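Regression report. Comparing outputs from two consecutive submissions.

Submission 1:
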Amino acid sequence: MATATIDIGTLITRHPKICGDRPCIAGTRTTVSRIAMLWQQGLSAESIQNEYPHLELAKIYAALAYYIIMLIVQILIRF
């Protein structure tokens, strides 16, 4: 099975004039926090894609990875 490497930085962006500088999925106005909230409510990445069919599954996983990385960073900063 072949695998592909994708730079998460190309999938998650921040811009002061888009979504109030909050991280969002590139090319959309869907914030990482929105995806994380749906995931915390128990939706899988596939279920989130069903709710937001314009989002590619890779971008949803990138948003979740970004969210988890930011949580880990916040925990490490506290120590």
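Submission 2:
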Amino acid sequence: MELQPLSALRVEDYDENFPVHSLRTCEVPAFDLRVDDLLVVLPGTRIPTDGVLVGREGAGDDASDRLRACFLVRNIVK
């Protein structure tokens, strides 16, 4: 698939008490993702896999604010 990014930011140590932007991540190839991996999706980047939204940070209620948000996504694809 041409639109899929080649890499993803996988969360290494998830702690729900820390904001999304401060979680420790590691850049990994998108084909190395496993089911239940947590991924950080930064503003302006593409989501590397099908997943479920777990959290978001920095997003307001209007569409322009959501474009500047960081998202936390749980991978659901093998």
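Expected: both submissions complete independently.
Actual: both completed, but the second showed a warning that disappeared on reload.
Relevant detail on submission 2: The longest strand covers residues 51-57.
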